[in-house]
Design brief:
Radius of gyration: 17 Å
Distance between the termini: 22 Å
Helix content: 25-40%
Strand content: 15-25%
Structural class: alpha/beta
Largest sheet: 9 strands, mixed
CATH class: Alpha Beta
Length: about 240
Amino acid sequence: MKAIILTAGVSRRLYPITETTPKCLLDIGGKTILERQLDSLKNQQINNITIVLGYYREKIMDFISTKFADLNIEYIINHHFFETNTAHSVYLCRNQLRIDDYILMNGDVLYPSKLLEQVIYNDHETVLAVDVKVCGREEVKVIEGANNRVVAIGKKLVPENCLGEFIGVAKFSKNFNRAFADSLEQLIDAGGKEDYFEAAIELILNRHHVYFTDVSRYPCLEIDFAEDLDYARKIAEQDKDNLF
């Protein structure tokens, strides 16, 4: 199993904090977000990692070369990071996706290593980490069907109908990835470069089973706004050993 981490974004909602630093290199309790993610992958013996870069890519590459020289890192550059979204970043990885199982994660998500372990060792081959909770409009939400199957995913779903938030950490089988890669091509060819990658998942849910695992027992947080960053730093300070 390999991994893909998406770190290309500009993070305008965190300006001025991210005007000189990419979001994945923000410090949370003495470690950057990316450092915590790479440590979690290493703990699960996942050493082959593709990182999609864009904004301040040189800083990210320098950081990794200093801290994680032992990992087998492949870089893919999203040169259009200002005007595209995560669908385009994953689209750039479509050839890699087609040939292996992958952990896919957004580069702005904080979570403890046990959450990643739960995703990896879930009985289902294709599974999304979902924080079961009441959601608002901003979150990427899922609707559940029978037997933990996901039947809808996206930001525009009616919150009252949703199970919870997809936190941006997933395990995808090679068989699913072939269909996912085709769906990404269809989405981008149709002009969806500003979409989130979940839109390509939504297009194939009726033909391919995608399941969820409830990770609400763990602290997990997507860093989008300054208040998210403040909250993450606060709880990381309160329990440095067990959180994130």
